[in-house]
């Protein structure tokens, strides 16, 4: 318990090294609630990151946000349509990077605008509203230019050591079934939240579903061939119409395996951790102590409990079920063996991960920021969310929305 308290305390009150003379200066579009967790906090312990400015459609809200988070500048707009205005965020040459935590339906336009303005972009997930927007955004010509802007979809949980270690235990070709779950208690959202506004691409599968869908793709290390079913609970009136607040989607993957993803924004009262459970193919284990008429069989199940916010608490459970069978299929003996791991640092992970940089108090957001800065500065990145990955993610979400009957989220008219 003491270790947990110390780790979490340090995550929110980290050491603050001196900032480099070449530190990247970030601007935030929107006074979003996620920004302190996703960028402002992690930036405190990164010597090459300064959160310089914020802009919001409500200037007073932006000013209050800046004061609360010790941000030096409040910009008067995101961008001026004609001519440069150094008071506008995207026009300011002193801003190197843009963090976009705006409502989903605004991601595409402002990511495109920022990239065309020569800014590096850290883009909240889901990257855009649908795969049409994703294909355009991630194939912008500016991104392929020498020393061009860096674009990253902010799938923070993928950067944590626990997730990397969990995946290292799995042979994707041996996966037969994956189930993933993510829940927000009913009191954590309101019907009037942006999550439930169709016009700005709201919906549960655009929120918690992004995590559960991505978990399936990453475990199978492949993209689904088909969405077999997608059962949803959704609102039916006004701007909320066709916004799901709960979903269960089932996908078939190229190796024949099945993935099931459940997520909700109207979960039980008590907070429950997210989870991913992976079932592997049955394998025969050589055992020379057995008579020739018998064989030893193993079935393995791996579970990562809390794959979204592993900094607070997580556990990797490994369950092996063994059977001694006669050649005619009768079970002679059966038993289980259990093991578990907690991986808060790369050193905990060991092996190929042992020498990677990081501290026990680094949240997944801090690991993500480390890699984002490394990529911008031309250094090696240990993990990355590629353009192809982000496009495939949106295709999977589209597949589920089509199967559900709710339809795709609306495409921006901006080009």
Write the layout of secondary structure elements.
Blueprint (H helix, E strand, L loop, with lengths): L1 H11 L11 E6 L5 H10 L4 E7 L3 H10 L4 E2 L22 E4 L3 H13 L3 E5 L6 H7 L13 E4 L6 H8 L6 E11 L22 H13 L5 E9 L9 E9 L5 E10 L7 E6 L2 E3 L8 E12 L9 E12 L4 E11 L4 H4 L14 H13 L10 H18 L11
Parallel strand pairs: 1-2, 1-4, 2-3, 4-5, 5-6, 7-10
Antiparallel strand pairs: 7-11, 8-9, 9-10, 11-13, 12-13, 13-14, 14-15
Describe this structure in words.
With 415 residues, this protein is an alpha/beta fold. The chain has ten helices and 15 strands. The strands form two sheets. Strands 7, 8, 9, 10, 11, 12, 13, 14 and 15 form a nine-stranded mixed beta sheet that branches. It is globular and about 85 Å long. The model has no long low-confidence stretch (mean pLDDT 96).
Strand residue content? 25-35%
- H-E order: HEHEHEEHEHEHEHEEEEEEEEHHH
Counting helices, strands and paired strands, the structural category is: alpha/beta
* Total beta strands: 15
> What ranges have pLDDT less than 50 throughout 5 or more consecutive residues?
none
What distinguishing features does this structure have?
single chain; 415 residues; alpha/beta; nine-stranded mixed sheet; 27% strand
